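From the shared-data thread, chain only:
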Amino acid sequence: MHSFLDSLRRMLSLDPPHPVLLKNKEQFADFNQGAPLNEYTFVVCDTELTGLNKRKDEIISIGAVRIVNLQIDLNQTFHRYIQPANINPNDATLIHRITPEELKKANRAVDILPEFIEFCDNGLIVGHFVGLDMHFLNRTSRRFLGGTLSNPGIDTMRLARRYKDNGKKDHYGHHDHATSYTLDDLTKEFGLPVFKSHDALEDALQTAYLFLYLLKKFKDGGINSLKDLYRAGRIRS
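Structure, as tokens:
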């Protein structure tokens, strides 16, 4: 009941944003996109969901790993299950291998999200089709914490598309858009280490390897700053 009343007050704007969001916003008030890539911290994340309905479905797991000095730091990982308002045993077990019992024991989003935002700190959030993750993170954060995350986002799917589009054209000179950009297929194509799919932390690690692979390829092409990377992937912060 307490979390329901909290979320209701947040939606009605009766409470100010959660302190963790105020700190988060302050960290990016004067954000500089012009520094070399190795000077940024990246937080590669993935969310597991009850489904893809952007209005009704919920986050049931968040996984993340930090990249510091362009290296994955396995000592800085985040992995939490989140208890949704409605537990569908079939979806949770069959798709994500997360049992209903695990979800029933998990904390609610109102408790987990502040932890995740603290973990992200001043890092740039990286994800594969990151817009979907950010939609659910921001929708949940708006509901329970009274605002959204300020961390800029980077989409490895867009970066992969730009990288492959630059190198692959058909014999008429057109880009080949039939190629797959799923995380699994890109991992196989680029010969990257393989992690277990449909697990938030494992998918975050998978994405981290893809991200570093693409950064190296872009760096070889003269892309050295975050601003250059945004332009290369046509990404908005």
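The CA atoms of residues 169 and 176 lie 6 Å apart.
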